[in-house]
Amino acid sequence: VTIQSEAKNLGPVSGPNRQRDLCTFCTISLDQEEVFRTKVYDKSVSPFYGEDFYFEIPRPFQCLSYYVYAKSVFQRDLPVGKVSIRKDDLCKYSGKENWFSLQPVDPNSEVQGKVHLEMRLNEVITDNGSVGQHLLVRIIECQELPLIMEFGLCRTTHTATKGCVSLHVLNMCFNFSPLHLCRVDLWNNENLAQDVFLGETRVPVKILRKDSIHKAWYLLQPKGNGSKSKSDDLGSLRLKLTYIEDTVLPSACYTPLCNLLLKSPDVKPISASAAHILGDIYRERYEAVLPMVRLLLHHNRFVPFVSAVAALELDNTQEANTIFRGNSLATRCIDDMMKIVGKNYLAVTLKPVIDEICESNKTCEIDPVKLKEGDNVEVNKENLQGYVQKVFSSITQSSSSCPPLMCDVFRSLRHLACKRFPADPHVQYSAVSSFVFLRFFAVAVLSPHSFQLRSHHPDPEISRTLTLISKTIQTLGSWGSLSKKLSSFKETYMYDFFKSFQEDKCIEKVKKFLDEISSNISKESMSKRIQKRAQGKKRLGKRNFKKRWLRVSSRELSYHKHKGESSFYHCRLKIHRSSKTCRSQEEAVCCFLSQFGNTSMFQVVHSEKPLYVQAGNCVEASEWLEVLGQVTRCNEGRLANFHTSNYTSGTWQCCKNQNNNAPGCKPCTTTVLANLQLDIDCDRETERVFSLLSSNDTKLQDMEDACASMAVYQGPQREQEECSKFTIQEPKETFQTLKQLRNVMEELQRQHNVRNDTTAQYGSL
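Below the sequence we write its predicted structure tokens.
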């Protein structure tokens, strides 16, 4: 669901003109569960809630509701009105702007959930000898009731008057003589003041057959079947929403499309790949690349894809100071990746200081125009400077917490930028800072609620403080800005404030941080005492192992005879592009370790011969394997297979191969990146890609026509209108990919059509 909103002519909360004295905000709810909240807007009867919300709905629901509240300082927030749209009606309003009249918020209309009823109609002979009908009603189960109301449904009383039943209990049987309608009400009796209405459902008696059991699920309805009460004009709410519902098929149906997307990094040129085509036809929709990014992340294909896309963008960039400044496919993919992968990184780095800023509530306004009466600008400047220093220090000292995948992407961007603009010494920093500072940290500081750093929008004064901090962090983090003069600031007050940060020490901190997250400069080293097998020995006896100190950094692996020794290396292995760390699969570990009788063994394979290492214990061995796996994950020549045992007496003991240079007999375990725990449903993401492509079939056809036109036309190159809409480097390869996409989509659509033929049974869940 994608949502935008605006209100006008908001009516009074209580009494005439009361609304003009209060600030307002808007909330978005799935049934009765609030999922989003706008920030509080200043006093106005026509506020513009200019915020976009994009979210995936994780559970079944009945209504999507929008509530407008008036913010009150001394009491709870007062509801102004609401707009509720049933799930079945969302498609009717999707993709359009509509004005809705606000309806009063009535507790008896705040209903959600469903009830499973068992009903049976029996004929009985009454006391006077006439034949009558008795109805047996049993409540089997309730689902999706408000969480706050799911308790207390335990009272055993009930009433039966004029064909209506009022229940306070689940799983209960009773008889009564109905008229034409059975109404079942659910109440919660936990409230000490009065019972709380949970909802009702009405069942026509005529649908019941004699002497047969009727079981069905019914949605709970508002009291009085949702009839609207007369009320004053509460105003209107303009909504622009996009609602998309996907039906996910079995996994086997998505294999062809998924494979086509995953081979995108290997397609030459990258513009002819399926993933690039998806981003090309959806340039205007920012969220369209998100399912593709998730798929590539899940299958460890993101880094090669985004590197190829970034290289294509750099080829079309003429000036170094405009690098990665536009809203391109590369920047959109990296933005989405950082939001997914960097959640924990932001929480560790920024949340403590953001919480302090929001809870201390110090005034930090330094704009003379916006100062309030009694404010001291020097005190405010001191407060702001303290906050900025804390945020800046938290960021520049966080390199060790930066997720490895983000480091891989930044390393690739840095390399590509230096290759494209070799004469510019600053481009290696601006290529990274344009993402990590401008698009990641600065945005998270400005909108902490969007990154789950805070539960709600901060109040206007705190929001202003965060805005000033964000602007300062953007400037501090931009290497290009740091090389400019102070006169580049438009605001005089920012010019004066930033003087205190124009120091070489501050610039060096930024450079050091960017170096640590984007190059092979060592961030930190790990050193432990281990036992290693002596080089050149033929057997694996106890005397062939020596105690050494093993040390690893992001640049090299070395071992020494004494702790802290640096002048003399017994062995130094360059990690970058030369050594490969391998770990066997579970069954191979047993075969390999059985020859040593120890579970703390591992091996490092490099250009000459394997290095066999025994850690102090199995936990240390696991830590070493994780660290070595991370620092070698980008090696271009990393081995795909390795030998699980040693080479002695002219034979590999694991596979009995007599060739010392024979390739490994077991595949290396794929390195799991630290701090990257993604719960991704690949079938769901592939279905989302299919829906996006299907809904834009016209553009796919236009792209096919453009490829055909470019392939046939032999004259001088010219900018054709249909070709300028797309990035087409090689029309034949692009046309071939489009045909493959078309065939895969037709088969998927056929699978959907087959499964859509069945109809649900009445009353089924």
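The two ends are 24 Å apart (CA to CA).
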